[in-house]
Amino acid sequence: MKALFILPVILLTVSCSMMPAKKIKVTDQDLLTVQEQVRDYRAKHPGRNIKVIFGEGTWYLPKTLSFNKSDVGSGKRPVSWEGVPGGKTVISGGAMISGMHDAGYGIWWANVDSTMKFEQLYVDGIRATRARMPNRTDTLPRIYLTKSRWVYNPDSTIRNITVEVKDRGFFSELSTQGEFEIVVFKDWTTSRFRASGLKSGPGEIFLKPPFMLSENTYNSIFATDADHYSCYLEGDPAFLDEAGEWVHDRQSNKLYYKPLPNQTIEKTSFVAALSEQLIVVEGTRENPVKNLSFENISFQHSAYLLPEYSHDGAQACFYQTGKTGGSERFRIISEAIRMSWASNCSFTGCSVIHTAGNGFFLEEGCHNNLIVNTVIEDFGGNGIMIGLPVDPKADTLALPTGNKVAGCTIHAGGLYFQGAVGVWFGFGAHNEISASEIYDMPYTGISMGWQWNPLPTSSHDNRIVNNKIHHVMQVLGDGGGIYTLGFQPGSVISGNEIHDILRSELNHASPNNGMFIDEGSKGYRIENNTIKNTAHTCIRGHRAAGVELTGNTFYMGQFPAVSQTPPYNAMIFTDKDSTIVWPNPGFPKELGYPETVTAFTMKGNKFVGK
After folding, report:
1. In the chain, what is the straight-line distance between the N-terminal and C-terminal CA atoms, in Å?
2. Which of 143, 256, 509, 551 could form a disulfide with 187 if both were Cys (CB 3.0 to 4.6 A apart)?
3. HSE (side-chain half, CA atoms, 13 Å) at 508
4. What pTM does this model have?
5. Residue 506 pLDDT > 50, yes or no?
6. H/E element holding 31?
7. Cα–Cα distance, 44 to 42 (Å, whole number)
8. What's the chain's average pLDDT?
9. Residue 517 lies in a domain
10. Number of separate domains in the chain
11. What range defines the domain where residue 113 resides?
């Protein structure tokens, strides 16, 4: 089905300090055509400011809207794309689906073009549930697993992997019609795999090759013992049994939907997400994109399609590739908005909603960019990502620096990949999130650092200040309101309010905490934060290696305020200011741990409920 373009009038406003604004009406054109006109005008008039002014309405992109040096010229004069406040200007990566029919037994259907491939659907502006089993509303919404078995071909490649379920007769009355997906909940991440069939007595799920196997199966579905993992199945017509569910049957090229009460075919709208990326701002080392801004635009309906080798999830929406060494070991799911080699660009008063993957990713060569007063909600992966997954070391120009997130609201995320975080900081320096609110997340609120030991890195002087973080860690475990890793000299975590960091009864991982100061965390100054109502200690260290705790207020519940491992046989607890040290149990010196490690030095903290 061809994307539908709804095209209100666009005014291309051009101005400079020496002359009044000149307005050029641009009508009945898609955004790619408008962009070409902007580039042409910029080339002819490099000394003028340019504003592309949108009216109300929705633009459905036929492909990703990419910006490069041609859009900004020298970057000395700004170019801005501005919409109407209140989410009334929408740029969508989806396409509307029409032609619904009533099958007569509580199911609607529509023919879908065979070229359309989608795994996310929005009905009347709300993310609809892809048909699943068990249902979300069932008393037990997941199937518990026991172990996996591998079947090899004669050439030692993997022919099949079978995952057993605890309830031997679980699938006795269920027959799937084709390929479907299994969504596996692990300790701190989730995985998605294609599956080809089911068997009852014992209950088994047959995963479908090819598999991209990692040499490290820890926290992977490919570990032999999957006893503490659970799953649900998704995407087969046989699972379509609850109002509000849908399924795309690719064999018949039909969309099926089971309507909610009071929905009518005539008034119900359907949008399928098709484009994995909506906006890409991509300069080069020699020609970065500068002074490009977006204001009051709502970016919606970015897609995700399960890749050929499925998704064996790692932390924070990364996934394992099966390769060894360096950046090739892990990849990251796609994002609605990606920026690289961009400086002094901004998003103000915007929103990123209805995504299947991540919201923003500011990566290589991004400097002094702003995301301000922007809402990220109803997103499938991480909200905002700033930094690199691999340390650029001597390449200081590639290191993302000076990027700031301020006054943003980030909530209702990780809906497709529950191992997601609200904000992720990789390798970078002088990056900051401030005065923002993060809540309603399945895993961690803010994650900073991406090295699992205290050796020096390029990261330093990053800031997490004056944020409100609550009701995160609602699905998975072993995380916190704030999560840290690695050596970050000069980095500050200050003035944050963290509360209601609880725990799902379906998760069996390590504790959830107000802050989880994880492996190699060193050089952080954690000060003047307030933490209360946590499932475990307010702060937990695991191989923490030199962190200051000063002037914080800890509201203690069942547990003391601060804990630390190692030692693994007797976790260290404290409810008073002290210096916490731990003996190195044998980590090699090459990892940067001395024989005796100082985890925390504490001063001037307030302990409430002692």
Report:
1. 64
2. 509
3. 10
4. 0.94
5. yes
6. helix 31-44
7. 5
8. 90
9. yes
10. 3
11. 94-131+240-271
